[in-house]
């Protein structure tokens, strides 16, 4: 059974940075487009960013453009570098893949002012 695992969440102050990681159990992630989503309690899950399969082509939501960066650390890990964090970035962050539609369990990011 394929599992995605996110790590790196935590509680920080506004302006701080965090780095999230997403890995897939025992598989290379090169063949997958990997996306990050986030969800605030009571709201719909929203797209944050993605990196295309086989390439380094990236896409970002306007709300995080210029502050967040998605990258492939290696064949097995996709990271999300989050800089200049704001309180409105507080959410549970999920990684997901296409194809396969695999999702991780999420990691909490809390940014206080």
Key traits:
113 residues, mainly beta, 50% strand, four-stranded antiparallel sheet, six-stranded mixed sheet
Account of the protein in words:
By secondary structure, the protein is mainly beta. Helix content is 0%, strand content 50%. The chain has strands spanning 4-7, 10-13, 18-24, 33-39, 46-51, 58-60, 68-72, 77-82, 91-98, 107-112. Strands 2-10-9-4-5-6 form a six-stranded mixed sheet, with no helix packed on it. A four-stranded antiparallel sheet has the order 1-3-8-7, with no helix packed on it. Strand 7 (68-72) and strand 8 (77-82) form a beta hairpin. The termini are far apart. The mean pLDDT is 95.
Topology (elements, then pairings):
Elements: E1 4-7, E2 10-13, E3 18-24, E4 33-39, E5 46-51, E6 58-60, E7 68-72, E8 77-82, E9 91-98, E10 107-112
Parallel strand pairs: 2-10
Antiparallel strand pairs: 1-3, 3-8, 4-5, 4-9, 5-6, 7-8, 9-10
Largest sheet: 6 strands, mixed
- Report the β-strand fraction as a percent range: over 45%
Tally of alpha and pi helices: 0
Strand pairing plus helix content: what structural class?
mainly beta
Distance between the termini: 40 Å
What sequence of helices (H) and strands (E) makes up the elements?
Answer: EEEEEEEEEE
Number of strands: 10
Low-pLDDT runs: none
Assembly state: single chain
Radius of gyration: 13 Å
Q: Looking at the structure, what is the overall shape?
A: globular
Percent helix range: under 10%
């Amino acid at each position: 059974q394929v599992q995605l695992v996110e790590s790196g969440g935590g509680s920080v102050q506004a302006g701080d940075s965090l780095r999230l990681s997403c890995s897939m159990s025992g598989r290379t992630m090169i063949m997958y487009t990997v996306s990050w989503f986030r969800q605030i309690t009571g709201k719909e899950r929203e797209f944050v960013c993605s990196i295309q399969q086989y390439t380094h082509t990236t896409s970002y939501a306007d709300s995080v453009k210029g502050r967040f960066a998605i990258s492939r650390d290696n064949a097995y890990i996709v990271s999300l570098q989050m800089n200049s964090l704001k309180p409105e970035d507080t959410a549970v962050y999920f990684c997901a893949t296409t194809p396969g539609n695999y999702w991780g369990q999420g990691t909490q990011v809390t940014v206080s002012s």
